[in-house]
Amino acid sequence: MPTFNGVETPNGGSPDGPDQSKICPPPRRDSRDLPSLMLPSCYPITLKFMEVGYRVKYGNKNKGSNIKRILGHGPTSSDQIQERTILNEITGLASPGEILAILGPSGSGKSTLLNALAGRIQTNGFTGTILTNNKKPTKQIMKRTGFVTQDDLLYPHLTVRETLVFCSLLRLPKSLSKQEKTTVAESVISELGLTKCENTIIGNSFIRGVSGGERKRVSIAHEMLINPSLLILDEPTSGLDATAAYRLVLTLGSLAQKGKTIVTSMHQPSSRVYQMFDSVLVLSEGRCLYFGKGGEAMAYFESVGYSPSFPMNPADFLLDLANESKDEMTVELDGDGKRVRSGGSITKKTTSCGM
Ligand SMILES: Nc1ncnc2c1ncn2[C@@H]1O[C@H](COP(=O)(O)OP(=O)(O)OP(=O)(O)O)[C@@H](O)[C@H]1O
């Protein structure tokens, strides 16, 4: 009987986490039921990360030296090897059935954090602890982790269906037949709402293909083929209009409802997208400004003296805070002596995580 990587409990049914049998029924071993086997996330993953830090060394004077010579630039002090802290003691938690959104301005460290959480950073500069179900991530856990990168790499000449069937043939275990792998791809196409465009080519900037939103969905579908329990996405809504972004996050929400743990970075979510986040982690220059429930962020900042002077999208407010936290600002007080946002500036009182 074929085994399917995305469903079976690792280590013969004794996972590193909660008793799975209490969470969802054991899968029926019938290849005709493959799509229904594949869709439930039967292996919940709780992701904890504590004091995650990342420092990089840069400024190798030998690199690009020919170009520098052509430009007439001799060795300068900036050619010396320097160190930079990209992430500074970031702590947080993502639970099954929830969406954790990493928010922050460009360059604040969102992608770096996601890479760290996905185990994609293995250099000396990395510090801190990342646990899945209270243990160091095992190979089995890594197999159940999907990572959707910011820059998707897809073959422009293949259709959506061809892309996913091809990936399915490559990524799914040899124990599944070709027909079963095709069935898995078909069910993912349907789950991600790609049926309408399944015969459209992916395309690129030269060849007209699927829309930006559909392209993002194909990237997510690509990871969904392995039925991940933990899905990490780097800016899945970048380049999408507000409605397409909302629809995509709705899809993420429905995946979360099936028991998956979703961690996603997002640049500028609309207020209705923000409302779909269970937790948010706000980064500013690699430091955590806030980690906690999305719905409690505004109250938290108000309690520590920061509030917008007019009703606004919480995500915009948090991004303003993150952007302005690095600048020197003047404290402005309203009639009650509260610090207020005024003329686009918000004063910042704390950099600790509001957990
Ligand atoms: N290996 C590296 N060497 C030097 N600097 C790096 C390295 N990796 C990341 N950085 C820097 O760290 C900062 C954070 O980068 P990161 O890509 O994580 O930001 P981001 O929040 O995802 O940005 P964006 O929203 O624009 O994608 C940036 O200033 C980037 O230039």
UniProtKB/TrEMBL annotation:
Domain of life: Eukaryota
Topology of the protein relative to the lipid bilayer: Multi-pass membrane protein
Biased composition (Polar residues): 1-12
Keywords: ATP-binding, Membrane, Nucleotide-binding, Transmembrane, Transmembrane helix, Transport
UniProt cross-references to SUPFAM superfamilies, sorted A to Z: P-loop containing nucleoside triphosphate hydrolases
Pfam families documented for this protein: ABC2_membrane_7, ABC_tran
GO cellular component: plasma membrane
Subcellular location: Membrane
Region described as Disordered: spans on this chain: 1-35
InterPro entries: AAA+_ATPase (IPR003593), ABC_transporter-like_ATP-bd (IPR003439), ABCG_dom (IPR043926), ABCG_transporters (IPR050352), P-loop_NTPase (IPR027417)
Keyword Transmembrane: yes
MF terms (GO), sorted A to Z: ABC-type transporter activity; ATP binding; ATP hydrolysis activity
Residues covered by the ABC transporter domain: 62-310
Classification via SMART domains: AAA
PROSITE patterns: ABC_TRANSPORTER_2
The keyword Membrane is annotated on this UniProt entry: yes
Family note: Belongs to the ABC transporter superfamily. ABCG family. Eye pigment precursor importer (TC 3.A.1.204) subfamily.
Listed name of the protein: ABC transporter domain-containing protein
Organism: Dovyalis caffra
